[in-house]
Amino acid sequence: MKRKGLLVVLVMMAIAAIAGCSSSKGDDGKLVIGIDDKFAPMGFRDDNNEIVGFDIDYAKAAAEKMGQEVTFQPIDWSAKESELNSGRIDMIWNGYTITDERKEKVLFTKPYLENSQVVVVLADSALAKLDDLAGKEVGLQSLSSAADALDASPLKAKIANVSEFPDNVLALTDLKSKRLDGVVIDEVVARYYMSKEKGIYKLLDESLAPEQYGIGIKKGNEALLEKLQKALDELSSEGTAAEISTKWFGENKVLN
Fold first, then answer.
1. pTM (two decimals)
2. Ramachandran angles phi, psi of 186, nearest 5°
3. pLDDT surpassing 80 at residue 12
4. Do 26-112+214-249 and 115-211 fold alike per CATH?
5. Which has the closest alpha carbon to 214: 90, 89, 114?
6. DSSP helix/strand/coil, 137
7. Mean pLDDT of the chain
8. DSSP letter assigned to residue 171
9. N or C terminus of the chain with fewer C-beta within 10 Å?
10. Domain with residues 115-211, CATH architecture
11. Nearest by Cα to 53 from 93, 90, 19, 100
12. How far is Cα 14 from Cα 10, in angstroms, rounded to an integer?
C-alpha cells in the first residue's frame, strides 16, 4: 500500500509539472491576442467577417518571427487588463495606448505608433474648435484612452453630457443620427472612417491629447516581452513593418 501510494503521488506530481509547463504563456508555441474587433483600421471585421487590420498583420508577422501560432480573441475592451491578468489572453494588441496608469497593470513594449485623441463631428456641423463643445452632447468608447483624455481636459466640465459606448462604431452611429454633437476618438480610427464615408465627418481643429500605442503583456512575463520586442525590432530593420504600415495608412507611420 505504501508503495502504491507513493506511486500515485509521483504520478500526480508529474502531471502537475507537465500542466504547469504547458500553461506557461508564450512558451507553448501559441499566442492568444486580445482585440477590439470594431477598431478599424487597427483590428476589425471586413465584409467577409474576417478579422483584419494593421495590428492584425503586424502581430502575424511578429508571431512568425517568434516561431509561434497566433489566435485573435475579441474581448470586452473595458475588461482588457482583467482578461490579460486572468491568463485568458497573452497580449493586448489593438491600438492600446500607453499610459502611466496602465503601466502599473501591464508590461509594455516600446511605442510603435503615434496617435492623438480628436473630436469628430458631422461635416455640416457649425462646431469648429474644442470650446464649441460647451453645452453639447459628446460620446466616446467606455474605459478607453479617449475617456482618459477627456477626463484630463478642462473641456469636460463644459460639456452637457458624456455618453459611453461599448465601441466606436456605436458612438459614430449616434453621431450620424444626430443624437450626439461630437465623438472623442483615436485619430487613426477617425481618419479611417472619414476615408470610407467621405463627406460625412470632419475633425475639430484641435486635438485633446497626443499618445502612443504599445503592446501589453502580463506583468512577470519579461521573457515573452523580450522575445516580442526582438521580433518587432527585426520587422522594423528589415522593412516589413513599413510595408504593413503603407498597406493600411499609405505611408510608414511605425516608430523605429
1. 0.82
2. -65, 140
3. no
4. yes
5. 114
6. strand
7. 90
8. H
9. N
10. 3-Layer(aba) Sandwich (3.40)
11. 93
12. 6
